[in-house]
Design brief:
Blueprint (H helix, E strand, L loop, with lengths): L1 E8 L9 H8 L8 E6 L2 E7 L12 E3 L2 E9 L2 H7 L15 H8 L9 E9 L4 E6 L8 E5 L2 E5 L2 H6 L6 E2 L1 H10 L9 E2 L2 E2 L4 E6 L2 E7 L13 H15 L6 E4 L4 H13 L9 E6 L9 H11 L2 E6 L2 H14 L9 H11 L5 E3 L4 H5 L3 H9 L10 H4 L5 H15 L7 H7 L1 H31 L3 E3 L5 H8 L3 H4 L7 H10 L16 H7 L1 H9 L2 H6 L5 H11 L7 H20 L8 H6 L2
Parallel strand pairs: 15-16, 15-18, 16-17, 18-19
Antiparallel strand pairs: 1-3, 1-9, 2-3, 4-5, 5-6, 6-7, 7-13, 8-9, 8-12, 10-11, 13-14
Helix pairs in contact: 5-14, 6-7, 7-8, 7-19, 9-24, 10-16, 20-23, 20-24, 21-23, 23-24
Length: 602
């Protein structure tokens, strides 16, 4: 896990003086263990390292014979790939990413589908002036690029491209209100143009500083061998968790007591039972001063039963108002998910003990855990349609922007991919369910959940790993028959059945109360103080109807004793997120101060 940045220049162009050094300085949090750079012909790469595998010999970029390669991520099958290389091609470094350079030398860009892991990578052949940028198939690791007259520039975070002076942060008003209403912005375009995201599985082929071609690695389109036998699930779970424990440094896990994190706890316990192995470290967030569901007692019980070390991480209203700016600062690609708050809090606590955290993202998407999947499948098979969110429903937005946003949502909802209708029924229940899942796998997962995980953990210099998002397990789970994923009112049925056998204390078939963050409740409790600060912000004030913010914030108080996902509380949090984001990322206000001071800064 690291930070990568660099450029591919057109013939005769030069990069701004000191650019690679500025890139490195802006990525120190992603890689505090070392920095190295390399310039070959028309390309320059810089890498900031969080040392995980081959601590002494894994510094990147790897270079040889006018070629170089580097990556942010982990290649879990690097040993098998190393064995496929000839004796003279095998790298001296034992780093998992060291295989990328010889694979690029041998196969060009076509080696991507051989990789199992999470990665954003860059490679370049100076003799041919050709290179590639690539992102893993499920978008676990981020990569952004900027096309300019002089060439292509790229980085692990868009803020690196902006703060280095390459481009100004310009907010598109329609995309801004989309964020307020929908929580995140999906696809290649970003809320700040003209920077673009590499899409999950996308590979850009670059020649003479220009995009010469692109293709995609789409493993979900291949139907794997195997069946829904519980024994096969057990084998696959054990194999993926073992692969994701690959490290020369300590690791732990986030435990919420939900299905996915409980499975990780049980499997990590199985794999770490030798007498000389330290107990699994399990970090759990709770909110002691807010009326939200609390599964901490169950998490503590499960950790005790498994012999794990339970680490209690309370997060209070005082923590929220002191640290929310840091969480928003981490999300330079804005995802207004309230889970960024405990994610950063847990990551900062975990950083005292470990460099790696295993987390349960992906279980719901690949094994059909969300209740909405059952509802959509039973009513009329369709992908999630873009619908008006809380900002539109509350009448918060200026009339002109509200109309434009509504038109855009209606246009997207009418596209064939969002409403399969009778045609999907003819294809059968299994394919209809996969169609519904795929919408989340392609957008909600990479552009919300995984942005949150990457940014919050990397802000604390901790690597996040997701065993449920894996070529071997995810593709198999996605292609399971619907009967193995949905049974009655239960989603993730096969996973629940596994947990009932191997850790019954987790009570997998009991209705879960969910993980709620009381962000809206806390915002509402200080509505009178926050509302004038938010209304005075230039960008936010240009998007919303004058005088509406105070009422919206106060409505979040009513949501506090029900659910943080209630429209009132959710919108109250999004308003605060947006106000902080505007101040921190557009006006460079210091995030390491209380919320009030960030909003009041001019």
């Amino acid at each position: 896990m690291c930070g990568i940045a660099g450029y591919f220049l057109k013939s005769g162009a030069t990069a701004p003086a000191g650019l690679l050094g500025r890139f490195a300085g802006l990525m120190t949090h992603r890689g505090p263990d070392g920095t190295a750079s390399k310039i070959i012909a028309q390309a320059g790469f810089v890498h900031t390292r969080l040392a995980i595998v081959d601590l002494a010999g894994g510094q990147q970029p790897f270079a040889d014979d006018q070629k170089m390669a580097m990556a942010n991520g982990e290649i879990y099958n690097h040993q098998a790939l190393r064995e496929q290389l000839g004796p003279t091609q095998r790298p001296d470094s034992l780093s998992d990413c060291a295989v990328l350079l010889p694979l690029f030398s041998r196969h060009g860009s076509q080696f991507i589908d051989q990789l199992r892991g999470m990665y954003a990578l860059a490679a370049y052949d100076g003799r041919q002036d050709r290179g590639i940028l690539a992102r893993d198939a499920f978008g676990i690791k981020p990569l952004y690029y900027l096309e300019q007259e002089s060439g292509i520039y790229f980085a692990s975070e868009p803020g690196v491209l902006i703060k280095s002076g390459l481009v100004a942060a310009e907010m598109d008003p329609l995309r801004a209100v989309w964020l307020l209403d929908q929580q995140y912005y999906s696809g290649a375009d970003m809320i700040c143009s003209p920077i673009k995201r590499l899409l999950p599985g996308e590979v850009l082929e670059i020649a003479n500083g220009q995009i010469a071609g692109r293709f995609f690695d789409h493993p979900l389109e291949a139907v794997p061998a195997g069946n829904s036998d519980p024994a096969e699930l057990d084998d696959r779970l054990q194999e993926t968790v073992a692969a994701h424990q690959m490290a020369d440094v300590p690791f732990g896990m986030f435990l919420s007591a939900g299905i996915d994190s409980s499975i990780l706890l049980a499997m990590m316990t199985r794999l770490n039972q030798s007498p000389d192995t330290a107990p699994v470290l399990a970090y759990t967030a709770r909110f002691p001063d807010a009326p939200v569901p609390d599964e901490t007692g169950l998490a503590r019980q499960l950790a005790r039963q498994c012999g794990a070390q339970f680490i209690d991480c309370p997060y209070t209203k005082a923590d929220f108002f002191a640290d929310a700016g840091l969480a928003v600062a981490a999300c330079d690609d804005p995802a207004a998910d309230y889970a960024i708050l405990p994610s950063l809090h847990l990551a900062r606590r975990a950083a005292r003990d470990v460099k790696i955290i295993l987390s349960g993202e992906g279980g719901d998407e690949f094994f059909a855990g969300y209740g909405r999947y059952r509802r959509r499948l039973s009513l009329w098979p369709s992908a999630p349609r873009p619908r008006p969110g809380p900002a539109l429903k509350a009448g918060l937005l200026h009339d002109g922007l509200a109309s434009q946003l509504q038109d855009q949502l209606s246009m997207l909802a009418a596209q064939p991919g969002h409403s399969a209708g009778f045609g999907m029924r003819l294809l059968g229940r299994d394919r209809a369910l996969r169609h519904i899942q795929r919408a989340d796998i392609d957008s909600w997962l990479p552009d919300n959940l995984l942005i949150k995980l990457d940014r919050c953990l990397m802000r604390a210099s901790v690597e996040g790993r997701t065993p449920f998002i894996d070529r071997q397990l995810s593709v198999w789970g996605y292609h399971l028959p619907a009967s193995a994923k949905l049974r009655g009112r239960h989603g993730k049925y096969l996973l629940q059945s596994w947990l009932a056998e191997h850790l019954p204390a987790a009570r997998p078939f009991q209705r879960k109360r969910g993980f709620s963050v009381p962000a809206g409740y806390w915002v509402a409790s200080e509505a009178a103080r926050l509302a004038p600060l938010l209304e005075n912000l230039p960008l936010l004030g240009s998007l919303v109807t004058p005088g509406r913010i105070a009422a919206v914030l106060a409505a979040g108080q009513k949501a506090g004793d029900k659910s943080a996902a209630d429209r009132g509380g959710l919108l109250a949090w999004r308003l605060l997120f947006f106000g902080l984001w505007e101040q921190i990322h557009l006006h460079q206000v210091d995030p390491e101060q209380p919320v009030w001071d960030i909003l009041a800064a001019r």
